[in-house]
Amino acid sequence: MTDRTWGLIGMGVMGTSLARNFGKKGVPLALYNRYIKGSEEQIALERTQTYPELKEALAFESLTQFINTLEQPRKILIMLPAGSAVDRILSELSPLLSEGDIIIDGGNSHYEDTERRAHLMVQKKFLFLGMGVSGGAEGALNGPSLMVGGDIKGYQLVAKDLEILAAKNKHGKACCGYLGKGGAGHFVKMIHNGIEYAEMQLLAEIFELNLSSPDSSLETLQKQFSDWNNTESKSYLLDLTFKILGYQEKGKPFIDLISDQASNKGTGAWAASSGATTGFPNTVMTAALHARYTSSFKSERLKFAKLLKFAPSVSPKEIPDLKNSYDLSRWINHHQGFDMIRHTGNNFGWELNLSDIAQLWTEGCIIKSDLMDQLCILFKKHSSIFEMAVFQNLALKSKPEWSAVLEYALTMNIPIPCLSSSLNYLLSMTQEQSSAHLIQAQRDFFGAHGFERLDQEGRSLNHGPWHDQN
């Protein structure tokens, strides 16, 4: 029997949720999960028995039987952890497939791995796609944001099905799109996660600043976040944050029972390191990543806190208004993410449309927000957030308040890596003359690296007089 239109490999949380999403849409499915005695046995079968929407799906632990149930060209979605597991399943699949079959890696693979696999699959004459899936388990079940890259012919064959699977924004448009060849989809998903890291850290910094005053409470902070969420600051992350603060256990705030050591799953680190390797200043997401790293050193923090007891520099002041600083930092975070997409897309020849990418992020993903809705429109006329009048007006209006927030944090010994990184970036990018000429002189002094002179035309390298004296 070869009547299954889709095959799904990997029945973890995300794979199961996407399968259920397909099942709710009436898509005939074949499900495969590997067999490991004692730890992974009859996983796919258990899913079909647990979820009513999967009762018609066929479950397999034999890859050959799984493949043989799929109509041709076969459409296979792989939902496995990034890395060797994906390479292994592609190696096992290849001898079983036919020319023109479509393989989609829907996990959080690194875009460079996707580039490599795309080249390999072309040689085997398969149509390979790398697809970023955002929205977590809930999004996967009810409608995720799907960022697809790879073989355009392959995408055209699966586009309608993926659009059925994807979230729909307020205009009824599917949050699913083709972004370019090779690893384009996974690259854009990686930057999504970098922006997400910074959005979460910004809220954590606002949280800590607000609670630094004896007059503050979780109740007042929750109301403030709720009020903000009824303004242009509205976002999915802000919404869930004020909801989190309302949960209690035995009359105590549940948030106070959670260890202050943040984890990360790799995509944020990839986004930060990608900026370093391509020479792009993605400072806000990098600051957010290192804030997580620092939080994980709990024993060291406890020890050093006893050794170095910093008192407030002066008597505590009233907490300054934080909203504009928060909003402006978010604009800068998004600027860095989108600008990184634009620069890297140009390098890879992906021809990425920033308005289209913003549209993919208006629903079904973690960073959906009213700001993203604005950017869908504004990117149709501008290639950079710094060119947008709404950003310029906010920056000019908010700079004094932002300075007061940083001064308050310093006074109260509260680290605010993302808020301060955002301001430093704004100042750096609007500085006509930087101090980098001194760096160039230093590099030439110790390494004879050379520099360009302002009083010469062209890009020839020169050396300083210090070399004449040696």
Tell me about this structure.
- The chain has helices spanning 13-24, 43-50, 63-68, 84-93, 111-123, 136-142, 152-165, 184-210, 218-228, 236-244, 267-278, 283-295, 298-307, 323-348, 354-360, 370-378, 389-411, 417-429, 436-447; strands spanning 6-9, 29-32, 58-60, 75-78, 102-105, 127-134, 145-150, 176-180, 248-249, 252-253.
- The chain is an alpha/beta fold and 470 residues long.
- It has two domains: 6-182, NAD(P)-binding Rossmann-like Domain (Rossmann fold, 3-Layer(aba) Sandwich); 190-429, Orthogonal Bundle (N-(1-d-carboxylethyl)-l-norvaline Dehydrogenase, domain 2), CATH 1.10.1040.10.
- The strands form two sheets. Strands 3-2-1-4-5-6-7-8 form an eight-stranded mixed beta sheet, with helices on both faces. It has a two-stranded antiparallel ribbon with strand order 9-10.
- Helix 4 links the parallel strand 4 and strand 5 (102-105).
- Helix 5 runs antiparallel to helix 8 (184-210).
What are the salient characteristics of this protein?
470 residues; 10 strands; two-stranded antiparallel sheet; single chain; Rossmann fold
Low-confidence stretches: none
Q: Count every beta strand, where a strand is a DSSP E run of 2 or more residues.
A: 10
Q: Strand sequence of the main sheet, in spatial order? A: 3-2-1-4-5-6-7-8
Compressed to H and E, one letter per element, the order equals: EHEHEHEHEHEHEHEHHHEEHHHHHHHHH
What is the CATH superfamily label of the largest domain? N-(1-d-carboxylethyl)-l-norvaline Dehydrogenase, domain 2
The secondary structure category is alpha/beta
Count of alpha/pi helices: 19
- Strand percentage lies at 5-15%
The CATH topology of the largest domain is N-(1-d-carboxylethyl)-l-norvaline Dehydrogenase, domain 2
Helix percentage? 40-55%
Could you give the distance between the termini? 83 Å
What's the gyration radius in Å? 25 Å
* Form type: globular
Largest sheet: 8 strands, mixed
CATH C-level name of the largest domain: Mainly Alpha
**Overall mean confidence score, pLDDT:** 93
Number of domains: 2
> At CATH's second level, what is the architecture of the largest domain?
Orthogonal Bundle
